[in-house]
């Protein structure tokens, strides 16, 4: 495997760097650079494999007005070095390789879907074709094999571009370093999955191809049951090619194409995998994503169930409408029991459908819960109004306690009957119980509200406290400086006063020195 060469072209990143240069430096060098980029684009359309050295020779021959082409980087007149030019070429190659990977992944997914569609046509029109070795049979089987071969070529080309991208990202390392055991295992598994397809032709109709069967398989008396099971298994395993959907979603997602996402993600050590893209889709469009997945899974599993149940003598499970009903009640984990699969293959499909139904139901419950939940503003308003209502009820309960205390005092046994006294005692105890219950409810509510304090609010509070502390510190420093100035003035005044006293005393008593 030879070391891959660069694919030169006019990339958007190179144009952005040229556009970022100052206007005064876009003279002869700027025109030379534009000419060079146009020449590179022309050469790429003629020959997709050209080295950067030959590209520089073409630039020097065709752009005679600029003997030396260099990219201005700043207003100080700095020129890019040879190493920076290599980095620019690598960025251009990387951009085109990513575009090639996207295109190859799209073609591979389309080819896989065409093969699956041909397989479905092969299975559906089989009961209506009874001529063994017909031309329709030969054309459809050859088309399935041809699409499988094209898919294998596209998969190999995709991984070849991926290896070249690895080489560019690691600064032109040897291509053997990229061939790791994990990569070899992944490529081998993909090729094995994509090579699976039914290779048989339309056969003669056996005993099951009668009027009582809904849609019998095209089987022949010259083939045994093991071969029929293998043909059925190969037809169902063709749906494994749908793993290409997650790769297409990843390569065509706005998350991967956005430079802002990639820059911030690299700073936070985030790998842009399909798991991250799926989380973003479930966060932005949860209902739409889950609905599309459930519909596609429902139709696919129903058709697979009909394909499995066609070999049985059942009159209902081999029909599409009955399969749709059975998959639906199995997916929802209801299971009325009116319809049941007869074959082992159909039981396996129903088992897998039940597992996926439990998972999708859990995600659906989570989405509905999130949609019905209150946001922060609504929660603050709701709990604020609840706190006001509980405060009013506490005031009323406290007033009831005081009222019952006064009534109990008035209805003392000495002044009235004992029945009235006991009644007021019960009313007082009930009022105290209600008061304590409301106080406990208010305490729990305030504890829950205090836990809802979000981080931005705490950050704003801490910033305000820090600003207040800084202002207080500055004011304290100013006061200390003012006090030092006053102390210096007092010291000077004391010195002057002592000198004056000394002079006065000396004037009165000349003997004092």
UniProtKB/TrEMBL annotation:
The chain crosses the membrane at residues 104-130, 136-160, 181-203, 226-244, 290-308, 320-337, 349-369. SUPFAM superfamilies: Small-conductance potassium channel, Voltage-gated potassium channels. InterPro entries: CaM-bd_dom, CaM-bd_dom_sf, K_chnl_Ca-activ_SK, K_chnl_dom. One of its GO terms (molecular function) is calmodulin binding. It is found in: Membrane. Keywords: Calmodulin-binding, Coiled coil, Ion channel, Ion transport, Membrane, Transmembrane, Transmembrane helix, Transport. It holds the Pfam family CaMBD. Residues 10-23 have a biased composition (Low complexity). Its main location: membrane. Residues 1-29 are annotated as: Disordered. Residues 466-493 form a coiled coil. This is Potassium calcium-activated channel subfamily N member 4. Residues 387-461 form the Calmodulin-binding domain. Gene3D superfamilies: 1.10.287.70. The lineage of its organism: Eukaryota, Metazoa, Chordata, Craniata, Vertebrata. It comes from Poecilia latipinna (sailfin molly). One of its GO terms (cellular component) is membrane. It is a multi-pass membrane protein. Signal peptide: none annotated. SMART domains: CaMBD.
